[in-house]
């Protein structure tokens, strides 16, 4: 068979990639946005508030509630002006706990999350001027050190830090997202 072209499969793969992108796009259009931060309308613009809001949303998802409940709870907290470190401190753990109870969070999660949020806000205000971006600078832009500081200052586990990094990575320009991706476990990318 001289002159016959050999099928390398590259054309089929490119067509499959395009088909897959269309399917994913249709599913997202029908069932929701790509990330919870998009669903909560958190727009990352190098703003210290947006990073803190992503952290809050990550903490709210670390509970026995649906992601939709976490997003609704975050939006309600933002509407009450409790979506900055200063706003959380002004509200206090009891008001935040009440909002979590009202949203249907189990009691064990209520205490843990409200304490984590107020602890995070306090440490963020005292140690980093209320700016999670400053935490990044304090960590020397070392992704693993950033993760360690996040775990420590809010007394949260790896699940919250992983969720925060995943959401933050989705909302950042590609160059910054790549640095965060380096610190996110492969199973969560």
What does the secondary structure layout of this molecule look like, with pairings?
Layout: H1 10-31, H2 36-39, H3 48-61, H4 67-79, H5 85-102, H6 107-128, H7 132-138, H8 143-154, H9 158-170, H10 174-181
Overview of the molecule:
There is one protein chain. This protein has 189 residues and is mainly alpha-helical. 70% of the residues lie in helices and 0% in strands. It contains 10 helices and no strands. It has helices at residues 10-31, 36-39, 48-61, 67-79, 85-102, 107-128, 132-138, 143-154, 158-170, 174-181. Helix 3 crosses helix 4 and helix 5 packs antiparallel against helix 6 (107-128). It is globular. The termini are far apart.
Total strands: the figure is 0
Roughly how many Å is the radius of gyration? 20 Å
For the termini, the CA-CA separation is 45 Å
Sketch the topology as an H/E string, one letter per element: HHHHHHHHHH
Spans where pLDDT lies below 50 across 5 or more residues: 174-181, 183-189
Number of helices: 10
Structural class by SSE content: mainly alpha
The oligomerization state is single chain
Provide the helix percentage: over 70%
Q: Please, what is the average pLDDT?
A: 79
What is the overall silhouette?
A: globular
């Amino acid at each position: 068979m001289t002159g016959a072209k050999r099928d390398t499969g590259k054309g089929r793969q490119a067509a499959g990639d395009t088909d897959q992108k269309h399917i994913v796009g249709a599913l997202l259009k029908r069932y929701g946005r790509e990330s919870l931060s998009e669903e909560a309308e958190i727009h990352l613009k190098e703003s210290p508030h947006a990073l803190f809001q992503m952290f809050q949303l990550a903490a709210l998802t670390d509970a026995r509630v649906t992601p939709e409940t976490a997003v609704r709870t975050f939006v309600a907290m933002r509407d009450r002006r409790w979506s900055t470190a200063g706003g959380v401190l002004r509200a206090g753990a009891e008001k935040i706990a009440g909002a979590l109870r009202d949203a249907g969070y189990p009691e064990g999660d209520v205490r843990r999350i409200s304490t984590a949020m107020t602890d995070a806000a306090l440490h963020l205000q005292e140690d980093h001027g209320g700016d999670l971006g400053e935490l990044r600078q304090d960590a020397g832009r070392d992704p693993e050190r950033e993760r360690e500081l996040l775990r420590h200052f809010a007394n949260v586990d790896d699940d919250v830090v992983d969720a925060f990094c995943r959401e933050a990575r989705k909302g950042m320009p590609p160059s910054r997202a790549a640095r965060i991706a380096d610190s996110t476990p492969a199973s969560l990318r």
